Write a sequence for this structure.
């Protein structure tokens, strides 16, 4: 399970993770899609994402996602 799978399993959006970490949600998406390889993120970034997703073993953030992009979309939040 990579970042996307962990995030989705907790019912969070990229924006949610961005708000929890102080990292732009688009950057989170870039790590999820591989546009920015997770192995190249700084230790500080990995710790912030790991804390937000309650992941102690930061190596899990480097694992490939099982779910392809676009699958199992979260329901839109009601205003």
């Amino acid at each position: 399970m990579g970042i996307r799978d962990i995030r989705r399993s907790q019912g969070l959006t990229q924006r949610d993770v961005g708000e929890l970490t102080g990292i732009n949600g688009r950057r989170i998406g870039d790590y999820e899609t591989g546009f920015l390889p997770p192995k190249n993120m700084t230790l500080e970034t990995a710790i912030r994402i790991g804390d937000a997703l309650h992941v102690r073993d930061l190596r899990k953030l480097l694992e490939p996602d099982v779910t392809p992009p676009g699958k199992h979309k979260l329901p839109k939040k009601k205003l």
Notes: The chain has one domain: 3-62. The radius of gyration is 12 Å. DSSP finds four helices and no strands in the chain.
